[in-house]
Write a structure and sequence with these properties.
The chain has 841 residues and is mainly α. It is built from 29 helices and twelve strands.
């Protein structure tokens, strides 16, 4: 049995010239002006990704690939191909020997054929290996080809790390610009401006003569109601200006630069092609507008968009290496590594980035990609550390270290935070999807600039009075994670001071103390900030500006965790004789660390929204540097996932993929229906017969008429209309290119010429025009299933082999075809969803 399965797998693995799916395409429309419309033979309808398609140039994302065709059935295919197209007076061209431009490539908004791409790469590697034994030059070429992947990873890590450092520095400066300006150099942010001052005190280390607020510059005073109003108005002005510039640049130059980018990255990594989404214009505009959007004070983060930025870097650098430029499957291996790089520079967590790419983003993740992802994430983290954007020798702004251990009793509140995170994740996903659907189906979606300005105005108006909503998301999380020490002047550390020094703990930390007036005020402000963040994040995520979700979700969880942590701390202080605290929390001891609760809450909420588990725990561990806190993080994260999954198994990225109708076959989703292939295939009962080509009885004119009368992107080839015995499969795109090329470059090819897909041409009258042989562009081994194959097996075949279509036969006779779109529509139908939402705008 094992030998049979091994043989079957080898036959599938060696299949070549896989043909893209036979699908219909009524076109693509969107909400922005000046759109690029794909041609009629696109097999997958595009939907509103980021608002529109903007086609700057054909080389922005993926250039045409050369065919690299390979005939599995004959070792002498190259010699045979030389005479494939008859014996005309001019040199005859065959796609196998002389690849035509465009043959073997994919249209925009189409799905690649993984099997064909991997087969092409094996053939290329086999050829290089064979030639390396012939000469030293060929050997050096083989070595450089093997090294090129590591060199590409090095370049991706360097470029992404440098861009992330620049984004961090610029965002920090522009965020402070809303509050004031540095007199000794306007390019200094608040912290850097006061570093060199000799007039700062420890209690007021943020105040220095070199830094002036806008009220001091305009009104001449920093105190009083008028100064407050001036600062308030300037804060709103800068926020509106930054958000207006961000949405205008996105709309004018790169509509794909908006949003998080992770749902689209997941779709692209599954094999879908979106030209321009990872292009140079998208990279430039997303980098600039990400800084503007974060600086505007909107409830969004830069972590998700940094994954998009890193993937843009990888896609552009792939053009330098032929191996990756001409093979879509190899390119996606690099993009998987780039996703790890994005998380590495976003959180300073190289290992967590690799696990994030493996767990959350990647569709195909071989072992070689794991090693290269690790190397690229390492290089990116080292580059970011060298730039030192925060001036503290750390990779992130909210790096913290806790000193007090946690106790087993605290698992109960940690699990409670996990329950809160799961409920928050479920609430957020449902509310945000409902809001985004309203945006897509109402007039609100036609005015993205006005929407962004309105949300920014509301955010700025409500955020300024509260110091915890006025600061950036990263600063808020850093404040909430902070463990109070003797020298801390934060409001969150506004406890009543100890009477004597014996009440202080070790390592400059303090024993549990009663809450003072400052802490009570901070708790009220945090409670209001929690409500504000919960509501405003729902309508912010999905607007036409770059917007990440990691920081807002972590902020919500960190606020809830800090509130619970302070509550537990006060409970332990006033009731240390309870059985719950007896034995481990004696008076004068540092029992509860509120900052740890904030960290656990942040992980729980982020896990509830994204449904990440392993990668999330590792990311949070790398943030804190404490091995002993892995168990609380694991408990909260798993509880969050279980609670959220009880209400729906989709994370926020899968929900947005489904909302946009992307052709994404979720590998985590199980197919539990007992249908058969014959129930899903097309044509259905009452539909017109399947459009097919015959192997040697159709003329060029008949083939052109068939192609023009349909919108399918591929056609099965059968022996005859009567027998319907399957011979192969041919792409519409390859068919049109080959016929057009034959008419231009071969004498005698006319509409009456016979189109032949066989090795030997059938006998013809002497006066007949020369035949057109197209066996070279035909897939001789298309994937087939029988009509009684269970659909759960068929779905597994599509997922694991990355198929676009599969032909259905009965005793060798062609019955129909199942495409990826058919499967997605069927799965939507059995889930009581609208099947027409798949691949439609």
């Amino acid at each position: 049995m094992f030998q049979f399965l091994s043989s079957l797998y080898r036959n599938y693995a060696l299949a070549v010239d896989r043909a893209p799916g036979l699908m219909e395409n009524p076109g693509y429309s969107s909400g922005f002006d000046g759109l690029h419309h794909p041609s009629d033979d696109d097999d997958d309808e595009m939907v509103d990704i980021a608002g529109a398609t903007l086609d700057f140039s054909a080389t922005d994302d993926v250039p045409p690939l050369s065919s690299g065709g390979y005939d599995e059935y004959s070792a002498g295919s190259s010699s045979r191909a030389a005479g494939m197209n008859g014996s005309g007076p001019t040199k005859l061209v065959d796609p196998l020997e002389d690849p035509l431009p465009g043959v073997g490539t994919y249209e925009d908004f189409n799905t690649i054929d993984w099997v064909r791409e991997k087969s092409k790469d094996r053939d290329r590697h086999r050829e290089i290996t064979n030639k390396s034994r012939e000469s030293t030059v060929a050997l050096l070429h083989s070595v450089s080809d093997a090294f090129s992947g590591w060199l590409l990873m090095l370049l991706v890590g360097l470029m992404a790390g440098a861009l992330a450092g620049g984004i961090d520095i610029a965002a920090h400066w522009m965020t402070d610009l809303k509050e004031g300006v540095c007199l000794i150099g306007f390019w200094f942010n608040h912290e850097h401006c006061c570093w060199t001052s000799n007039e700062t005190t420890f209690q007021e280390r943020d105040r220095c003569p070199q830094w002036k607020s806008w009220a001091e510059l305009i009104a001449g005073t920093a105190q009083g109601p008028f100064a407050y109003i001036v600062n308030y108005l300037m804060y709103i002005f800068w926020a509106l200006l930054f958000s207006f510039l961000a949405v205008t640049l996105v709309r004018a130059f790169a509509p794909y630069a908006c949003g998080s980018g992770i749902p689209e990255i997941k779709t692209i990594l599954s094999g879908f092609i979106i030209r321009g989404y990872l292009g140079k214009w998208t990279l430039i505009i997303k980098t600039i507008t990400l800084v503007l959007a974060v600086s505007s004070g909107l409830s969004l983060g830069k972590e998700g968009p940094l994954v998009h930025v890193a993937c843009c870097c990888a896609n552009i650098l792939c053009h330098l290496f032929t191996k990756y430029r001409k093979n879509e499957a190899k390119r996606r291996e690099v993009l998987s590594a780039a996703a790890a790089v994005g998380v590495s520079v976003a959180f300073g967590a190289p290992i967590g980035g690799v696990l994030f790419s493996l767990e959350e983003v990647s569709y195909y993740f071989p072992l070689k990609t794991l090693w290269r992802s690790f190397f690229a994430a390492l290089v990116a983290a080292f580059t970011l550390r060298s730039i030192n954007p925060f001036g503290n020798s750390r990779l992130v702004l909210f790096y913290v270290e806790f000193h007090a251990p946690w106790h087993l009793v605290e698992l109960a509140p940690f699990i409670l935070l996990g329950i809160f995170g799961g409920l928050w994740g479920t609430l957020f996903i449902k509310a945000n999807i409902a809001w985004c659907r309203t945006r897509k189906t109402t007039r609100l979606g036609h005015y993205p600039v006005i929407e962004v300005l309105l949300v920014t105005a509301v955010t700025a108006l409500l955020a300024f009075p509260n110091s915890y909503t006025r600061m950036s998301g990263a600063e808020l999380i850093s404040e909430l994670f902070n463990d109070c020490s003797l020298l801390d002047s934060s409001q969150l550390c506004g406890y009543k001071q100890p009477v004597n020094t014996s009440e202080t703990g070790v390592d400059n930390s303090l024993a549990d103390r009663p809450a003072g007036p400052g802490l009570c005020t901070a708790l009220w402000q945090l409670a209001l900030a929690l409500i504000f963040k919960i509501l405003i994040t729902v309508i912010t995520f999905g607007m036409k500006v770059p917007s990440g979700l990691f920081i807002p979700s972590m902020a919500v969880g960190a606020i809830a965790g800090r509130l619970l942590g302070v509550g537990m701390e006060q409970l332990a202080y006033y009731n240390h004789d309870w059985l719950l605290f007896r034995g481990w929390c004696s008076p004068g001891a540092d029992c509860i660390t509120p900052g740890l609760y904030a960290m656990v809450g942040a992980a729980a909420c982020l896990g509830g929204v994204t449904r990440m588990t392993v990668s999330l725990v590792v990311i949070m561990f790398e943030l804190t540097g404490g091995l002993e806190y892995i168990v609380p993080l694991m408990a909260a994260t798993m509880t969050s996932k279980w609670v959220a999954d009880a209400f729906g198994r989709e994370g926020i990225y899968e929900a947005h993929i489904r909302l946009n109708g992307y052709p994404f076959l979720e590998p985590k989703e199980e197919f539990e229906h007992s249908s058969l292939a014959v129930d899903v295939m097309r044509p259905r009962r009452g539909d017109p017969a399947l459009a097919v080509l015959t192997q040697d009885s159709m003329t060029v004119g008949e083939v052109e008429t068939l192609v023009e009368s349909t919108h399918y992107s591929g056609f099965p080839v059968v022996i005859s209309q009567e027998s319907q015995r399957l011979v192969g499969f041919v792409l519409r795109r390859d068919l049109l290119i080959s016929i057009d090329n034959a008419r231009k470059r071969q004498d005698g090819i006319v509409s009456a010429s016979l189109v032949v897909f066989t090795e030997h041409c059938p006998a013809q009258p002497p006066e007949a025009p020369p035949p057109l042989r197209l066996r070279g562009i035909m897939d001789l081994s298309p994937f087939t299933v029988t009509d009684h194959t269970p659909m759960d097996i068929t779905v597994d075949i599509f997922r694991k082999l990355g198929l676009r279509q599969c032909l259905v036969t009965h005793n060798g006779r062609l019955l129909g075809i199942i495409t990826k779109k058919d499967i997605l529509k069927h799965m939507a139908q059995i889930s009581n969803r609208d099947p027409d939402s798949i691949l439609f705008n």
